[in-house]
Amino acid sequence: MKFEGAELLIIFSSLIILMVLIMMVLIYVGFLRKKSEMILQEQEKELKFAQELALSQIEMREQTLRYVGQELHDDIGQKLSVAKLLNNKLSSQLQLSEREFLKEINDLLGECISDIRNLSKTFISHHIEHIGLIESIEREVRRIKKLDFITVNYIHNVKEINIDPKHSLILFRIIQECVNNVLKHSRSKKLDIVLDDCIKTLEIRIIDQGIGIPENSGEDGSGLRNITNRAQVINADFTIDTVKDQGTEVKIVYPKI
């Protein structure tokens, strides 16, 4: 087959146009890919910055709690112990009928010393990392039960959980914050703390039967923001299901793998 000059020109022109179109498509695809990579890198930077910021905030709060816990144990606890000793000394100098009154004061001081000791342990982070998540929650539950105004059920399917101790501490702080919210705001008479240890995840649920979370509280509350930041640091999912006058369920799903 022979092509005339005009036909050759048309074929040659068509090939050039086709090549230009292919090059434009390739450039456009390359541009989209580069843009996607830049957006992804930007999102990764923002996520890393948010995690580092949240981690810094958590460390600052842990330092504050550690200081408060140490002060409670070393200062206030010691002063109460001295007061108890002085009380005992005074008791020996009184008549038998007067000692009963001092004995009540002595018992009250003893309870205060014990409560402060237990409370200070929940503030000192290395202590929580040492005893583990399960035992830490059990101690917190015992402390709440002593308040005697809410029924607490602690249900778990495991005695020990093998996860990073620092992650255990963060999970405990999340649970502590959720439980404190229930005690302060829910008006519930019942609280369930459920730990379900699965193969790949640890699922934690805190359930109350209170008034629910008002809509206007939103996610602007510092407590909820703290919980969200803590969950973000350990890549845990955090959700809240609340119904007015029926209660609230907070669910935390921590990936173990």
Automatic annotation (TrEMBL):
Residues 170-255 form the Histidine kinase/HSP90-like ATPase domain. It is an enzyme of class 2 (transferase). It catalyses: ATP + protein L-histidine = ADP + protein N-phospho-L-histidine. One of its GO terms (molecular function) is protein dimerization activity. Keywords: ATP-binding, Kinase, Membrane, Nucleotide-binding, Phosphoprotein, Transferase, Transmembrane, Transmembrane helix, Two-component regulatory system. Residues 69-122 form the Signal transduction histidine kinase subgroup 3 dimerisation and phosphoacceptor domain. CDD domains: HATPase_UhpB-NarQ-NarX-like (cd16917). It comes from the Bacteria. Its EC number is 2.7.13.3. GO terms for cellular component: membrane. The chain crosses the membrane at residues 6-31. PANTHER family: NITRATE/NITRITE SENSOR PROTEIN NARX-RELATED (PTHR24421), NITRATE_NITRITE SENSOR PROTEIN NARQ (PTHR24421:SF10). This is histidine kinase. It comes from Marnyiella aurantia.
